[in-house]
């Protein structure tokens, strides 16, 4: 028996193999995708506010709610991740998604890919279609500010992880999966018995390979390339086979 574990997942480039915000603009508004890169690099916008603004441009250009909803299920996704989620869920462990995407994207994709039932909670920015069919995205954190110097104003994943554990724990072990800079903060909140699974070739791996940053993370760290690696790690950690999912 492994006890009761918490599997905390990022979403973009972790559960799915693309950034969902970029994917929508790439497919439905390449001009907005270009503007996203340029404007975000100026530092004048939070990611969430920028996505909301550019979704407004998509809507003005005639992109409908139906088109957006129809696109989301096509995002690249490795079925091995579905099996990994099912495996952890079948063993009675808890799964939470903590993401800088939004509720519409995550819910639509999770339902379409068949793993929504494995997730106990989704912590992310609010997405909601208004009466005109325009998707609005609002910050998860608005007031009071979360106060973390590592994280963007709209979401501190470390704070959210600690609050989730306080409300839903205790857990015998936490396994955190992510890829980006904003996945470093929750890594610093983990105990030596916990584990960070960081995707190779992404910002989180670079940070964890730096000795100064690595010293801030007490948990064990492993790296992975594809969802097949995640599934392999889950079967090893849980002492079960993929067929038991």
UniProtKB/TrEMBL annotation:
The keyword Cell inner membrane does not apply. Coiled coil: none annotated. Its cofactor is Mg(2+). It comes from the Eukaryota. InterPro entries: HAD-like_sf, HAD_hydro_PyrdxlP_Pase-like, HAD_sf, Pase_PHOSPHO-typ. Keywords: Hydrolase, Magnesium, Metal-binding. This is Uncharacterized protein. It comes from Polyrhizophydium stewartii. The lineage of its organism: Eukaryota, Fungi, Fungi incertae sedis, Chytridiomycota, Chytridiomycota incertae sedis.
């Amino acid at each position: 028996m492994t006890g009761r574990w918490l599997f905390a997942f990022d979403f973009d480039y972790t559960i799915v193999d693309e950034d969902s915000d970029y994917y929508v603009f790439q497919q439905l508004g390449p001009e907005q995708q270009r503007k996203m890169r340029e404007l975000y690099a100026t530092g004048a916008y939070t990611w969430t506010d920028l996505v909301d603004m550019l979704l407004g441009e998509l809507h003005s250009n005639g992109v409908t709610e139906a088109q957006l909803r129809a696109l989301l299920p096509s995002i690249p996704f490795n079925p091995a991740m579905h099996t990994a989620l099912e495996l952890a869920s079948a063993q009675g462990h808890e799964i939470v998604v903590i993401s800088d995407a939004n509720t519409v994207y995550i819910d639509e994709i999770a339902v379409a890919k068949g793993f929504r039932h494995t997730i106990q909670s989704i912590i992310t920015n609010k997405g909601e279609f208004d009466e005109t069919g325009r998707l609005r995205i609002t910050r998860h954190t608005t007031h009071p500010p979360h106060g973390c110097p590592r994280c963007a104003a709209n979401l501190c994943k470390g704070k959210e992880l600690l609050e989730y554990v306080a409300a839903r724990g205790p857990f015998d072990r936490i396994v955190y999966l992510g890829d980006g800079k904003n996945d470093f903060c929750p890594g610093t909140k983990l105990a030596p018995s916990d584990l960070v699974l960081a995707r190779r070739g992404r910002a989180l791996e670079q940070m964890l390979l730096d000795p100064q940053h690595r010293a801030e993370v007490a948990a064990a760290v492993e790296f992975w390339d594809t969802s097949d690696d995640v599934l392999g790690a889950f079967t090893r950690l849980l002492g079960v086979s993929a067929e038991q999912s």
